[in-house]
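User: I'm writing a short report section on ligand binding and want a predicted complex to refer to. Could you take this sequence and acetoacetyl-coenzyme A and write out the structure as tokens? A short remark afterwards would be nice.
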Amino acid sequence: MDFGYSEEQLMIQDVARRIAREKIAPAAEHFDRTGEFPLENIQLLGENGLMGIEVPTEYGGAGMDPIAYVLAMIEIAAGDAAHSTIMSVNNSLFCNGILTHGTEEQKQKYVRAIAEGAEIGAFALTEPQSGSDATAMKCRATRQADGTYLINGKKSWITSGPVAKYFVLFAMTDPDKAARGITAFLVDGDRAGLHRGKTEPKLGIRASATCEIEFADYVAQPEEVLGEEGHGFKIAMGVLDAGRIGIASQAIGIGRAAYDATLAYVRERKAFGQPIGAFQMTQAKIADMKCKLDAALLLTLRAAWKKGRGERFTTEAAVAKLTASEAAMWIAHQAVQIHAGMGYSKEMPIERYFRDAKITEIYEGTSEIQRLVIARHETGLR
Ligand code: CAA
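Assistant: Sure. The structure tokens for the complex follow:
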């Protein structure tokens, strides 16, 4: 076992850390307050290979491995969680599925545009009535006599929905077959029949734009099907396995930012004649924060390592996401408590870490869904 990183992994970590410190962290408060989409920063991340880290260089990406992705995501999330949300959707949910299931033409067209940062991608699975129970979707794609598909229905909570050029969309082609009746499509945000709803106001990750997307007689061409008809659910689940490594990394980044700020604060802030970090009650919290962060990182690296070996990593990704997201929420909670009034104030980023951490327990499979995935694997029962 080797706990060291390769030169290439350290290089992308360094690039991400530099951009996060110089461009992202200083602007995080502005983007959180205004909810403005950070387009220039996202383009900068794309120019530096961070929008297609695992995408081979022939499709415009950085050609690196899943460990490199974890390291870069942590740095960007530590700078600002909303930026890392946009980055994770482009990398994991958009590029990943097309690289695995797409044709050569699809990879050249869709993956290249997103990996180079020229366009933004989105993933449209959730609907107003179906979140965790993804097979309950109602969005319909009906095959016409000429081979095209007519798509009608609504998708909700679509990250980057207001600005995305391309979407990986999941729709029912055969409702009688439930999970096996779902097909994945590559959809163009500028084509007639796709309507974007209002941007959702959110508790955290406020600069990552989220909206509902409505399809009304949207026409998809046969060559815009991703993989085979009826294979959409398995594509979605495989993509989400990879996505969960990204969200675990995001959670670690948020948790680390809250931890670092807390470490600095407990050394400096005095009460009853000494730094508050000298009190055992504070020290116990610091120790628990450190253990949770280290455990989350090691579990996330394990899932990424298994992905890099080409092995199934569903359970490892669920373990990593569950552990990391609950660690981030707990650490952010303790960070607010230790900072007390200053933790509750908008003058420090601590309350933002607290708001941002919460989403990691919800999207790309709630903590309850991660427990279900893990327990089904362990018990063999369902
Ligand atoms: N990889 C490959 N195949 C998989 C799979 C995986 N990880 N998980 C399930 N499958 C396959 C199964 O083997 C099964 O195949 P067969 O039909 O051949 O047997 C098929 O898919 C159906 O599987 P299940 O019977 O287990 O399906 P289920 O209906 O019980 O659902 C679930 C399982 C784990 C609950 C799943 O629905 C799930 O993960 N739900 C959560 C959805 C989710 O994460 N949504 C997030 C939205 S996207 C988002 O948040 C993005 C964003 O904005 C940032």
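A remark for your report: The beta strands are 121-124, 140-143, 149-159, 166-172, 182-188, 194-199, 210-220, 225-226, 270-271, 274-275. The chain is about 50% helix and 15% strand.
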